[in-house]
Structure formats: structure tokens, C-alpha cells
Amino acid sequence: QSALTQPASVSGSPGQSITISCSGTRSDVGDSNVVSWYQQHPGKAPKLMIYEVGKRPSGVSDRFSGSKSGNTASLTIYGLQAEDEGDYYCCSHGGSTRHWVFGGGTKLTVL
Amino acid sequence: QVQLVESGGGVVQPGGSLRLSCAASGIAFSTYAMHWVRQAPGKGLEWVAFIHYDEVQNFYADSVKGRFTISRDNSKNTLYLQMNSLRDEDTAVYYCAKETSGSNPFDSWGQGTLVTVSS
To answer: Which of its termini does chain A have fewer beta carbons within 10 Å around, N or C?
Structure first.
């Protein structure tokens, strides 16, 4: 199963908003609402930021928002802060199979 | 508070075997499905394997199917990954992750354990 497609890098200044896209197919992103997003800082384990396309776990800032249209999911971060810098990964359920596929990751730089 | 602690990583020669463990605490381990996810050095995340909370179902990525076996001991609150016929491309940090539900697959992660396959 092929990885989901994310931009390699995005950047923004503090206070700005950025959006990271995650493109899949009708068999994964387009087939369900089981899309999640993870933040990873260097040398650390990933952290769940968004699940079920747009739901935030307890403790995650409401500056993080998820959405989906067709075969593409998106993560938007409002009011960028320095601590948002890191790598972001999307993930989707692989359709009817109990397989999971991640995006290649996007490096967010806060200028 | 959920705590997942992986162990068992190390250096192994190609073709060799290794067993990873993931000790869980702070949760009713026997009620949660679990996953292994890996990350090669400088690369992205790759899902490896899934196990149902009562072991009735296991699933594997094509890249490890037939070589890796996921299992668990609910009496010990521990998840395992038996890795056989290891290849250079299996070199990675291996994370265990807890699944809250099918729609929230990786809500808690361990700190990871490094597996290096090298001669």
C-alpha cells in the first residue's frame, strides 16, 4: 500500500496560519473518516493531534484543526507558535483491510 | 496515566532474530488493541503490525508479513514483536502504540527502541 502524499516542508511566521495537505485514494483517505495527524519533535515519539478527521484529543490546543474533502485531508494550524515546529504525519485506515498507511511527513518551520 | 515502555532493541546481523517487548501501565491493557509502528533513521513512520485486544485478529504490513509475529500477554500487560529473518531495511526505531478505537488507532506511544540490522 502506497504512502499518503504530504508536502515535504511548510513554513510560516509566528501568528500566521498554515495548512498541510495529505492526499490519498478512494481506498484510504477517501473511503472513511478514519484520518489522524501526529506531531513529532526531534528524538521524540509521535503525539496524536487529530483523530477521526477533525477531533482533538484532550489537551491538544484548539489552534489545531483537521478536515477532509474527497481523497485529501488537511491539517490547519492557526496562530503559529515556535513550539509548533516539528514533523507532522497524517495517517489513514486502508479501507476494508486492517492496514494503516502514513504520509511521508511534513517538516514545519516557524520562521 | 498511560505509560508504554519498549525494550529489546539492539544490533543484530542480517538473517538474525530479535524480540521486542512493550510493557504497559496505567491502563486496562487487556481491553485495548495494540500496534507496532517503526521509523527508519531520518525517514517517516511506517505501520508494522496490529493485534486485537484478545488476539483474535493480527494484521501485518506486507513488508514484514511472514517474518514478524505480534503477540501479547495480557496477564503481564506486555506486547511483543518477534522479528525473524531480519534485513538491513528493518533498521528503525520501533514504537508500540495503543489503540483507543478503530477510528483512533495510535493515541498513546512508547518512547521507542532502536533495532539495527548490520553485519
So the answer is: C
